[in-house]
Specification:
The chain is α/β, with parallel strands linked by helices. The protein has three domains: 85 residues, no CATH class; 231 residues, Aldolase class I (TIM Barrel, Alpha-Beta Barrel), CATH 3.20.20; 48 residues, no CATH class. The chain is built from 16 helices and twelve strands. The strands form two sheets. It has a nine-stranded mixed β-sheet. The longest helix is centred in the N-terminal third of the chain and has 13 residues. It is globular and about 75 Å long. The chain binds pyridoxal-5'-phosphate and iron/sulfur cluster (SF4). The site of iron/sulfur cluster (SF4) has 10 residues, from loops. Its EC number is 5.4.3.2. It comes from Mangrovibacterium marinum.
């Protein structure tokens, strides 16, 4: 079942001596990835007009094409124009449109990069870009300008810079390997990298973000699982966007990872004309949980160059969240986030559930529209926390618990700090005060 008739036909076209085993060999898949229009037309039988071809060639010159034979085999050739797999894999001329609000590096990952390969944005965790290549180049990729620009797998010396930064930065307890796709690294290098990171005493967990279960599920071999197993606790996040991507092969890959003992998560991107529909999204989420994958994030599409045709209004995401909260299992719904342009990090957004508030009651609404009240306790004693934890009646085991300063809004809420406001830089009113002082 894993090998379908259309996959067989494709394998025959790609390789003179196709063997059943080849199709499921991830290296064979990578070697035969589809990189240009001619190959695409030959293998799918889809034909474009001369005018379309010229525009598509220009698109691929700017953002390269790369599709695995496996992912190509999922395209519905008869109705390719509406096909979610086609839209994620194959370029559209709209990619050449750049809007004034779009940026090459919308999340300022470069500015928050202390050393090559590392983005250190949050206090206790880093993003480590360990490869610049992916099995497939998603057309909606945030790192579109980088991924595939020059196919590049960093050497051990280059990776060493990131490892050294983590070693020297004791607050980093969570290392997120990303890319490109970290599973593009050969097994030996991945083994080495994980072993280096896991030996750093302050690193508590490693996370791996990969789209392999979606675009090249055969990458999840028994050997890979046995390597990864050595580095528990290892969390794995994948990137399914549409229920059509859940196939017999991807289920098998997910089962191997779940059986390997890795907690699995999924990050989807909300994409116009791909999954911007509450029913499609719900169907995807249900399939994910059936395969032991916990939906983690639903991303609002970033302001990267060439993605305007994929972007939806934020209202679409809120509408989808409204259709999920209360309507389906709590663990089947992701957190909808906007990654703040300029590098502010992920900001969760939700429909509003609090309708009003008094000193002793909160008025809330539920998913059905029922309006209800929650009576606040009269007995709650206000605690003034001076962060003198050793004197506190709540028993925090101080040993091994890091002392950290409250930052941001948390700081405004804390009793132990006298900051009363956060003021934007160059606030004119306060500059006037300075002059008058
Ligand atoms: C998303 C992201 C992380 C991880 O964030 P979580 O909310 O913990 O999943 C870390 N660093 C950067 C730069 C990120 O973009
Ligand atoms: S797998 Fe991820 S990093 Fe690679 S092209 Fe797709 S979205 Fe971009």
């Amino acid at each position: 079942m894993i090998y379908t008739n259309s996959q067989q036909a494709l394998a025959n076209k790609i390789d003179d001596k196709p063997q059943l085993s080849n199709w499921k060999d991830w290296k064979w898949q990578l070697k035969h990835h589809i990189r240009n229009l001619e190959q695409f037309e030959y293998l799918t039988g889809i034909r474009f007009s001369d005018e379309e071809r010229a525009q598509l060639e220009a698109t691929f010159a700017k953002f390269p094409l790369s599709i695995t034979p496996y992912y190509l085999s999922l395209i519905d050739k008869k109705n390719y124009k509406n096909d979610p797999v086609f839209k994620q894999a194959f370029g559209a001329v709209e990619e050449l449109t750049t809007l004034p609000s779009e940026l090459a590096d919308p999340l300022s990952e470069d500015k928050d990069s202390p050393v090559e390969g590392i983005t250190h944005r949050y206090p206790d965790r880093v993003l480590f870009h360990v490869s610049n290549v992916c099995a497939m180049y998603c057309r909606h990729c945030t790192r579109k300008r980088k991924v595939g620009d020059i196919d590049f797998v960093p050497s051990k010396e280059q990776l060493r810079k990131g490892i050294d930064y983590i070693k020297q930065t004791p607050q980093v307890r969570d290392v997120l390997l990303s890319g490109g796709d970290p599973l593009m690294l050969p097994d030996e290098k991945l083994d080495w990298l994980l072993s280096e990171i896991s030996q750093i005493p302050h690193v508590e967990i490693i996370r791996l973000g990969t789209r392999m279960p979606v675009v090249l599920p055969y990458r999840v071999t028994d050997k890979l699982v046995s390597i990864l197993k050595k580095y528990q606790p290892l969390w794995i996040n994948t990137h399914f966007n549409h229920p059509n991507e859940i196939t017999a092969s991807s289920r098998e890959a997910l089962a191997k990872l779940a059986d390997g003992g890795f907690p699995l998560g999924n990050q989807s991107v909300l994409l116009a004309d791909v999954n911007d529909c509450p029913r499609i999204m719900k169907s995807l989420l249900h399939k994910l949980v059936q395969n032991r994958v916990r939906p983690y994030y639903l991303y609002q599409c970033d302001l990267s160059e060439g993605l305007s045709h994929f972007r939806t209004p934020i209202g679409k995401g809120i509408e989808i969240m409204e259709s999920l909260i209360g309507h389906t299992s709590g663990f089947a719904r992701p957190t909808y986030v906007i990654d703040a342009p300029g590098g502010g990090g992920k900001i969760p957004v939700m429909p509003n559930y609090i309708i009003s508030w008094s000193t002793n009651k909160v008025v809330l609404r539920n998913y059905e529209g029922v309006i209800t009240t929650y009576q606040e306790p009269d007995s709650y004693e206000l605690k003034n926390c001076d962060r003198n934890c050793s004197e506190c009646t709540l028993e925090l085991n101080i040993d091994g618990v890091d002392e950290n300063e409250a930052i941001g809004i948390e700081k405004l809420l804390s009793d132990s700090c006298d900051t009363i406001s956060l003021i934007p830089e160059n606030n004119e009113r306060l500059q006037r005060r300075d002059i008058n002082d």
